[in-house]
Amino acid sequence: MAITAQMVKELREKTGAGMMDCKKALQEVDGDLEKAIDLLREKGIAKAAKKGDRIAAEGLTTVVVNGNDAVLLEVNSETDFVAKNEGFQTLVKELAEHLLKHKPANLDEALKQKMDNGTEVAEHINSAIAKIGEKLSFRRFELKSKTDADAFGAYLHMGGRIGVLSVLEGTTDETVAKDVSMHIAALNPKYVSRDEVSADEVERERQVLTQQALNEGKPENIVAKMVEGRLGKYFEDVCLLDQAFVKNPDQKVRQFVEASGGKVREFVRFEVGEGIEKREDNFAEEVMSQVNKK
User: What is the pLDDT of residue 47?
Assistant: First the structure.
């Protein structure tokens, strides 16, 4: 398979590895992006790929709680200046209130619903675009529900750059729930617990760690034990309950929540612009600069 500049660029964005290393890795695996990521990690050139590491769009996230219902949403703007605009912030609040009231199943349904003033949500956003003078995008939302015996954890970081909504069962202590959400904002776990990690993902990580250990020259008879130890560290990186609690690193999040009699049911975390590129770098110029250095 021919390796294109765009393929190299995408691999660089996901791994942070150098251009030539990315190109060689893609050539070795015949252009398979996921295999190239694993290969770079095995060689110690890249860290574990995390989708959405590149933040390249402006806007806001917000969390609104209304009784036993809550919503987390993200609305994007082109500039940070507009994200601080009162009109933009009003739009975000109006959309949150609409979502809580009408509970659409998905974004497409939400955009077609009518606001209280009779206009469709999409049209309402277009009206805001006309007033503000900048492209705006209602990107995503998550609605959550709970019982009277549970607690929502609502947390916004950096004025809404990161928004987290968690649901704790068995406790009504919103302070505990908010602390959990604050932790999630800081450490960005992917799952609540190990049970949520698929067998395929665990096996893929085990294979990468095994090859890493072999490449380090470790004896084969101790590689398996090393890999299991490193897998434990992997779970600490991706699973909320296995992480050291940010406010007390001597305590796991699981222990902190259980001390309140609660249990983390679920969470959702939005970071403004994750996975969106605001602008395209001139990749051709970068390639030429690398060539000229040789």
Answer: 54
SS3 55: strand
State how far the Cα of 72 lies from the Cα of 156, in Å rounded to an integer.
10
Q: Give me the DSSP letters along 188-232.
A: --SBSSGGGS-HHHHHHHHHHHHHHHHHTT--HHHHHHHHHHHHH
Question: pLDDT band for position 107 (50/70/90)?
Answer: very high
- 96-100, 136-140, 239-243: segment of lowest average pLDDT: 136-140
The half-sphere exposure of 136 on its side-chain side, counting CA atoms within 13 A, is 29
Q: Is the Cβ–Cβ distance between 291 and 198 less than 8 Å? A: no
Rounded CA separation 76/61 (Å):
9
Indicate the Cα dihedral angle 245, 249, 250, 252, nearest 10°. 20
**Starting at the edge strand that comes first in sequence, how are the strands of the sheet with 263-271 ordered?**
151-157, 162-169, 263-271
Q: For residues 65 and 38, give the distance between their C-alpha atoms in angstroms, rounded to a whole number.
A: 41
Q: How confident is the model over 259-285, as pLDDT tens digits?
A: 999 999 999 999 999 877 654 444 455
- Structural domains of the chain, with CATH: 58-192+256-271 (3.30.479.20)
Comparing C-alpha atoms, which of 173, 178, 172 is closest to residue 150? 172
Q: Is the pLDDT of residue 120 over 50?
A: yes
Q: Scan for tokens 């750059």, then name that residue.
A: 161
For 204-249, how does the pLDDT look when each residue is reduced to its tens digit (9 = 90+)?
Answer: 999 999 999 999 988 888 998 899 899 999 999 999 999 999 999 9
- At 166, which amino acid appears? S
